[in-house]
Amino acid sequence: MFAQSFSPATGDSSFSVMQNEQQVFLRRAVSDLSEEIERHKLSINEEVEEIKMSRIEEEEEVVIEQAECRCCGLKEECTKPYILEVQTFFSGKWVCGLCSEAVKERALKFPSISIGQAVEFHREFCDAFNATTRLNPKLSLTTSMRRIARKSFEKRTHDSTDFGSSSNRLSRSVSCDPKIQFVVE
Asked: Name one Pfam family in it (predicted).
């Protein structure tokens, strides 16, 4: 009878009941596991969406502002954090890249002055430069270069007309190939 109770041939045997219970338990475990996996996927997808949204919001928060150099007046488009960083370093004044290098050189050359004083000195230098050179065309570099070129040109044309002869000029010699032959077929 003992062997008969464990044989698979018997429909109501305790073995088949135990197998059915195990299958039901396994089905529940698989079902629970698949539900847990789906919940985990959903939570991961939600986290990914939150990260994407936060990045989009951060990108929207990056506002570009126009900053004007306190020394030379150059205007640049910069982000607010960069403007604040530059202002912090240069005593609350925004300074462009070229002027910042000049200010740093001044501060290195004269260690007894502060960054704020170096910025002020460079601003005064730029103001003096703009007041004289840009407003007075005689002091402008381009005008000076044009004047030098014009004098050089006038001197060359004046020298060639003074002598009145063509001996100073290069004369044309005989061509290497005096005839140009066109072949028409």
From this structure: DUF1677
